[in-house]
Amino acid sequence: MKKGDAIVLALVLAAAGLSFLLLWLLGEKDSENLVAQVYVEGVLVKSVPLPASGEEEILIQGIGGYNRVLVTPHSAFIVESDCPSQDCVRAAALTAPGQANACLPHRLLLRLSGGAVRGEVDSIAQ
Question: Splitting the chain (126 residues) into consecutive groups of 10 residues, what average pLDDT does each group show?
Fold first, then answer.
């Protein structure tokens, strides 16, 4: 590798790093006005805005069992379920609009909606 090649490589890597940093900063999620929505068999049964402080616990009776959902100022997640696999309990907390978690045996879907997302397209242009 020649000295000129090393300089070009360093410039390309620096440009890629700067691009990544800018996209990361501009793509930060806005957690204001987020709403945790709970669906059972595709029907919205509960809609709870993420609180400004504190926590709210929701008990949902699903098909064949129950799920406990915890809603905090920055996230929502399933903390307890009587389903056999417990995949929904082990899933990561929902922190951004559009994220979801499902408990398939109970036909339950927990989804975050609302909020502003900067740096992302929010509609499709034709």
Answer: 86 87 63 85 92 91 89 94 92 92 93 69 51
Q: What is the DSSP letter of 29?
A: B
Contact 62, 103 (CB under 8 A): yes
Q: For residue 73, which amino acid is it?
A: P
Determine the 3-state secondary structure of 75 from DSSP.
Answer: coil
| Full-model pTM | 0.67
Report the distance separating Cα 72 and Cα 52, nearest Å.
Answer: 8
* Dist. CA 83–CA 42, nearest whole Å: 18
DSSP code at position 48? E
Phi then psi for residue 68, to 5 deg, are: -105, 125
pLDDT in tens, 83-112: 999 999 999 999 999 999 999 999 999 999
d(CA 99, CA 78): 13
Residue 78 CB neighbour total at 10 angstroms? 27
